[in-house]
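Worked example 2:
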Amino acid sequence: MPITATSPSLLKRAGTDKLREVFQKYASLQKDGEHYMTSEDFVRKFLGLFTEAAFNDESVRLLAGIADTSKDGLISFSEFQAFEGLLCAPDALYRTAFQLFDRQGNGSVSYADFADVVQKTELHSKVPFSLDGTFIKRYFGEKKQRLINYAEFTQLLHDFHEEHAMEAFRSKDPAGTGYISPLDFQDIIVKVKRHLLTPDVKDNLVAVTEGHRVSFPYFIAFTSLLNNMELIKQVYLHATKGSRTETVTKNELLYAAQTMSQITPLEIDILFQLTGAVNQPGRIDYSDLSNIAPEHYTKHITHRLAEIKAVDSPNDRSALTQVLEATYRFTLASFAGATGATVVYPIDLVKTRMQNQRTGSMIGEVAYRNSWDCFKKVIRHEGILGLYRGLLPQLMGVAPEKAIKLTVNDFVRDQFTDKRSNIPVWGEVLAGGCGGAAQVIFTNPLEIVKIRLQVAGEIAGGSKISALSVVRELGFFGLYKGAKACLLRDVNFSAIYFPTYAHVKASLADKDGYNSPVSLLAAGAIAGIPAASLVTPADVIKTRLQVAARQGQTTYTGLWDATKKIMAEEGPRAFWKGTAARVCRSSPQFGVTLFTYELLQRLFYVDFGGNQPKGSQGNKSAIALDSTLAQQVRPDHIGGYNAVVPLLAGIESQFGLYLPRYGRGGAAVPAATAANGSGTSS
């Protein structure tokens, strides 16, 4: 199943036949030859919500009513298919909320409809809202008989929670002083705005007041800030010219806010109070904003084949946990390395033969005019399989080679990464260089065997050689011939490649820091171009040292000897032989390798409490109340239904419309988090 983190507007519709097959699987009622879903069929069985025995029946009926447009208590296939189409709409979140309130199914919301749903929410039970006040009358008329259409409803829903918050403030300030206590402020925000609270914000609501009474303007600015965090992020990116790691001061952010938005100075003050309470005060970066920004429901539309939480928090990381994390990375990197090597192996063979072609030797013959000519001649004389000569030892070595490189690079990066997940450029270069050095222990024996097998086919009628015969001929120390050149090539390659990849990947991420699979592949391929081309001279020297010279060809005794003789006999251009083939091989190989490595970490997600690959999800902190919902994946949720559970969470997290989960008298918790009947974070 493909990985996506897109909004429902980009979901593709499911086919009618497949959708009907899913519908009939859950439809338990047959009437006049037609199949129907009951409320429980749709919500509890199909959606996988409210699966406990003591579920709230009224909440189940309300949610089922979203799809049941005829309001007869049953969902037909046409209604089931229509709702799937609605879930693919660009404004699916608001349209789904509208159908929740459209209790009569006539395309409008009456006062009775609105009041009925609001009174069933947890928020109303904790902080009752006056349904006879002036706010309601402005929308529904003095006699509350006016009907609200969809467009008007979207504004009503937007304004309702702001009015609810102000009404809650007035209830805590009966004397009309314009002030409330810090504890009253915390109580209101937790009850009325809990759908906008990340754990960091929730834990610092009293701290941010510094013990002072909270004024009404401060209260309004605080709630406005929570509502406008996405806009704040755009202001930050404007101030840093797109960088997510550069820190900014209050004055710098305030200047950017005044040039592009209506964010007030008071909201900026509160923002820095919040980030100062959570992190170090004075300067902020993008990660600080992500820590206090509410999570968007569309982040949840991400499919994983497995998800394991190895530790409850980063503080629980032990030495064993870190060993397991390294083993996990090593395993995924091995598979990724083998995949990348297989894809580009024919290009690697052509590159090796071009680099081994010696125009200054006594033989004087030139077998290949260029890389394309070499490619054609290999197929003509050796067949398609000739392009994969030496692949087996390559795969045997490339798995641990790439695994060591990626694992060591990740490990060293972790050591230089601060608590904001930022790392200095010198730390990135050092981490890459360490990864390149660590891999040489596997690279050199692999390379020398692979190269001798690759060039063996150049001699017509020559005896066939095997990897085992090459190993026997060279012996243990012979397998490390050219190791210095290998170090020169691999350390520099990795020191260039990994920092470049990290920065290109960040530049291709969306506004939330998420990288699509295509952007991962592109970043890996782009980073491979400068890394592969700039170290070609070292690669040429390594190849000459490792290939067995034939009669009449120049022999080399070491790194410096090879450098001098190549320069004297063939000139400086010889050091760049095979550059095009090397770039064409290394660029896609590392693009595929890093692409596979990061996608595997998304598919088989394990949280060890350490650093996760940047860009693997929207750069937002999860709201604990919605965490179970985040990974609710069901194979029958096809087409638009891929988004249904995250979208229902969005109704709660965006609008605060929490429905009671348990039967009357039971605790009221987020309706959608009843998935799988666990109610625990996944």
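The beta strands are 29-31, 34-38, 74-75, 179-180, 214-215, 248-249, 283-284, 306-309, 604-607. Residues 1-9, 618-632, 665-682 have pLDDT under 50 and may be disordered.
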